[in-house]
Amino acid sequence: MESTPNKIKDLVKDGYGSIAREGGSCCGPQSCCENLSGINFSAGYSNVEGYEADADLGLGCGLPTEQAAIKPGETVLDLGSGAGNDVFIASSLVGAEGRVIGLDMTEDMVTRARENAVKLGRGNVEFVLGEIEDIPLPDAEVDLVVSNCVLNLVPDKSRAFGEIQRVLKPGGRFAISDIVLRGELPPSLAEASLLYVGCVAGAQQEEQYLATIAAAGFADIAVEKSREIALPGDMVAGVLGESEAADFLASGVKIMSITVTAKR
Length: 264
Fold this sequence. Notes:
The chain is α/β, with parallel strands linked by helices. It has one domain (5-263): Vaccinia Virus protein VP39 (Rossmann fold). The chain contains eight helices and seven strands, in the order H-E-H-E-H-E-E-H-E-H-H-E-H-H-E. It has helices at residues 5-22, 85-94, 107-120, 157-167, 187-193, 206-215, 233-240, 242-249; strands at 75-79, 99-104, 125-129, 142-148, 168-182, 219-228, 254-263. Strands 3-2-1-4-5-7-6 form a seven-stranded mixed beta sheet, sandwiched between helices. Helix 7 (233-240) packs across helix 8 (242-249). The longest helix has 18 residues, at 5-22.
């Protein structure tokens, strides 16, 4: 899975651009992922303060703002901000004196998010085009970084977390929801997961993911929440065949959504 970074990145750009224009889910247009339908990545936002349904494209796998302890007046950076869902939630919490920056590498997403900001009258937000491995912000610029089901899509996670470390102020923190693995997926299932715009295909093993965070220099690393992303048996059987699917489903291999916090 880690050997196909360019393929994953291209799928992300193409798939998320299509979602921004036409709607869809983490796997992009339904026609490209019919064998993977039934996987529930997203978490419910409907009761969250500042939630705007028009900005929620169902692309997340957690609620990172729930664990972020966002304070009035803070500067927040949302990595992989999409149509602005978590940006608008954070903007309601930082208030008029605060600032929220959304970063996304897909032009159509940035365009849609900017349109949403105008429509909602959110003057304390901005949306920037760029990549997480090369964040276009100065050093020590933000108090908090949030991200929702995006870092798993980044090929060079060490560089990404190094960039997060760089743009955080001393004492700054992050709250990130992401997809990780516990155990190895069969190669054919991993390849099929590429249709899910990398949502699974780019995921690291959980221990490796947490080690990458620690290697970037973060402290007080904690997994605040976790839940299993269940793979429907009929979908697995459609990819692997009945016999191999039975072995896989009994193997204990899991796809997990986790929300991690840490401090600079």
